Amino acid sequence: MCAAPSLALAKTERRVLSRYAVNVALDVIALRSGVPENLPGRCTDLSEGGVGAMVAGELPVGQQVAVEFRLPNVGVPVRARALVRYQGRLHYGFEFIGLAVDQRELIRYWTFQAQPEKALPVPLPKPEPVLSEVPAPVIPLSTPSPSAPKIRVSRRWFNLLLAAMLLIAVVGWWKWQHSWNELESTVSAAKNVPLRVAPETMEMRIVSRIEPIYPEEARRTGKQGLAVLDVVVGADGAVTQLRPVSGDTLLVKAATDAVRAWKFEPYQFSGHAVEVETTIAVEFRLN
Q: What is the Cα–Cα distance from 30 to 66, expressed in whole angstroms?
């Protein structure tokens, strides 16, 4: 029995894919001088090729990051590596890189269940105008050119136009302020969320490990496979929280009882030991 995550990768195809509107929380992990930094945000649209989002932080175009989000009515989170393809103020466009097969299937399942009205139109290229070769009219030199008509705007219409422009400006400012307040509340809530660390990193920091006991009932019925857990490790390296993700009930219970007693080397962030969250997969295999 061993604890190892499955990292099957699939090559991302560059093609035009349908985008679907979605409004869920998004976690972006970026490396700053070799140190992971967690940036909270919210997804705005999603396709099999990438995700659009608003992120409370600065990310340059071309930077590789890790993204994680949970789709509505889908229990397992989507975790993927992505490349920053677009950046405009707080709006970002991320392209998935090496999206795992199971993660792609999660996105396809959600898009299949999504309502048709959630699909966003894919912009089409504008047709080039066709200019017909029509000779310009010849104006005799003796013909005086007509004077341009004068447009007079009454004070009443001018005031209405000015009021409409002010209304548009106020509505735009309110929408921007509302979006910013929403991001600020997300940042405040994210301060209490543990830093997510890759399973491979935490695997190398295990100090003591207790192997799970194979349940006799599972052995008798021939049950085997992976038991996947979401684990929170405290600043002292002890496991403080456990949440089952997938696997047979008997195998998950045996893995939970064993992993609860595991001990890790404390994870250092900015020179201090911090609480982190990771994923542990325990494999049960019959000999």
A: 7
Domains present along the chain, CATH in parentheses: 19-120 (2.40.10.220), 195-284 (3.30.2420.10)
Q: pLDDT (tens digit, 9 = 90+) per residue, 124-169?
A: 555 555 555 555 555 555 555 555 556 666 788 878 888 888 888 8
With the C-alpha atoms ordered 191, 193, 198, 200, is the resulting torsion angle positive or negative? positive
Report the distance separating Cα 122 and Cα 180, nearest Å: 27
- In a 3-state reduction of DSSP, which class is residue 31? strand
Closest CA to 194 of 77, 7, 36: 36
- Give CA separation, 165 vs 14, 117, 156, 168, 169, in Å: 41, 31, 15, 5, 6
Between vectors from CA 67 to CA 40 and to CA 101, what angle results, nearest 5°? 155
How confident is residue 7, by pLDDT bands cut at 50, 70 and 90? very low
Model pTM score: 0.38
Q: Do residues 74 and 84 lie in contact, with contact meaning Cβ atoms separated by under 8 Å?
A: no
Q: Which two tokens stand for residue 128?
A: 């080039």
State pLDDT tens for residues 179-202: 666 665 655 555 567 899 999 999
CA distance 67 to 55: 11
Residue 190: CB atoms within 10 Å: 15
Distance CA 196, CA 186 (A): 16
